[in-house]
Design a protein that fits this description.
With 129 residues, the protein is an alpha+beta fold. The chain has helices at residues 6-14, 18-32, 39-50, 74-84, 89-97, 109-121; strands at residues 63-69, 101-107, 125-128. The protein is 53% helix and 14% strand.
Length: 129
Amino acid sequence: MAKLSTDELLEAFKEMTLIELSEFVKQFEETFGVTAAAPVAVAAAPAAGGAGGGEEAAAQDEFDVVLEAAGDKKINVIKEVRALTSLGLKEAKELVEAAPKAVLEKVDKATADKAKEALEGAGASVSLK
């Protein structure tokens, strides 16, 4: 098989549906024994890293948003989980049903608070750790 350039790979990914891409990521993770980070956590990492000062180093700057319970409006919670992550419908549903479970990991305080408000607005019980 010929080696594909980064641009060729990106073009191939652009042609895939979200479900196909999700299945690819799962297979990639299994094949190489790695875990892909959620895009929200990746985007928040530079902001958290840039804010680190001598005084702030002692304070917690990374938070996990943990879904404790879905509540009565599980469909709304699933929608919010999908909006906050790159998960597909099936994966988001499984995450919600497996509560307590982390929705976002190692995100900055602002992102964690925003995610907590969105999930609680949908009827879920959420905690920050």
